[in-house]
Write a structure and sequence with these properties.
- Helices cover 43% and strands 20% of the residues.
- The chain contains nine helices and ten strands.
- It is α/β, with parallel strands linked by helices.
- It comes from Halomonas saccharevitans.
Length: 284
């Protein structure tokens, strides 16, 4: 199957942003767009526990009732999913995508995306899902698991869409971020977008050489490119640069070999990814 932009949607507040960023990416990449909704039909253990202290006959009756409720709940969830997919498809068509596809699967999101990984060119997913805590600095556990598991670029979408005009890549000279610069340079996703490269660290000869390589790679591909080496704490330094230059999309390596690694995937979710209101493209 042709590699495509795949957008994972649910009933969360981020679904509209996921739809619009996915449509933008599909058009820019000239890649097919597929909306995916996953129905998790895992049994509700709390409801099963209700029968624990009942006499045998009553317990069997209650288990039958619970089984019936589970079937009803699954049917409702599937119908809700179909309606979400229909609305997403209509929204993407309004955004200019000619024929977006829809898929509904049963299971867990991570398992489903793993099965479909070979079909994915870019995954678009919301910062949090409908089952996650809604605090603004909370990151959905599904997103963390997907980033750990999937070996594809992942675009974390905010609630609302803004067409990107200035992108910033957090660069550390690692293999992942060098590939990120090369991807920025050649990908049609970033045509006409100003590129900023930021190295957080000391002004050393090696860092200066790395920065010059990144800027020349981008400029040779026809991009407007600028960048800086800044000392300081990584998250604060990148956030300040982002605000000063009106950055509207961040690009980072999901697994690096420097302090930037701790921004994304580690034993705890870090401040940068949790607090940003911008879309973030995570590279593997």
């Amino acid at each position: 199957m042709t590699e495509q932009v795949m957008a994972a949607i649910d009933g969360s507040q981020f679904s509209a942003g996921v739809c619009d960023y996915a449509a933008w990416a599909s058009l820019a990449l000239e890649a097919p767009l597929t909306f995916l909704h996953v129905v998790d039909n895992h049994p509700q253990t709390a409801e099963s526990d209700l029968s624990g202290n009942l006499v045998l006959g009553a317990r069997e009756h209650l288990l039958e009732e619970l089984s019936h409720l589970d079937e009803q709940r699954a049917k409702v969830a599937q119908e809700q999913g179909r309606l979400m997919l229909k609305a997403a498809k209509e929204r993407a068509i309004e955004d200019g995508v000619s024929d977006p596809a829809t898929r509904q699967r049963n299971g867990t999101l991570v398992e489903t995306l793993t099965d479909l990984e070979n079909d994915i060119r870019l995954l678009v997913i919301g910062k949090r899902g409908e089952g996650a805590h809604q605090a603004s600095d909370h990151l959905g556990s599904n997103l963390e698991r997907v980033v750990r598991t999937l070996h594809r670029p992942i675009l974390m979408a905010p609630e609302s869409f803004t067409r990107p005009e200035r992108v910033m890549i957090a660069f550390d000279g690692s293999k992942t971020t060098r590939k990120g610069v090369e991807m920025l340079a050649k990908s049609p996703l970033f045509n006409g977008i100003s590129c900023h490269v930021v190295i957080v660290g000391a002004e050393t000869g090696d860092n200066r050489s790395q920065l010059e390589w990144a800027l020349s790679t981008l400029r040779e591909a026809g991009h407007e490119a600028e960048g800086e080496i800044r000392a300081g704490e990584v998250e604060e330094t990148l956030r300040n640069y982002q605000q000063e230059h009106g950055i509207d999309l961040l690009v980072m390596g999901a697994y690096g070999h420097s302090r930037i690694r701790h921004l994304l995937v580690g034993s705890t979710t870090t401040t940068m990814l949790r607090r940003t209101s911008l879309p973030v493209l995570l590279l593997r």
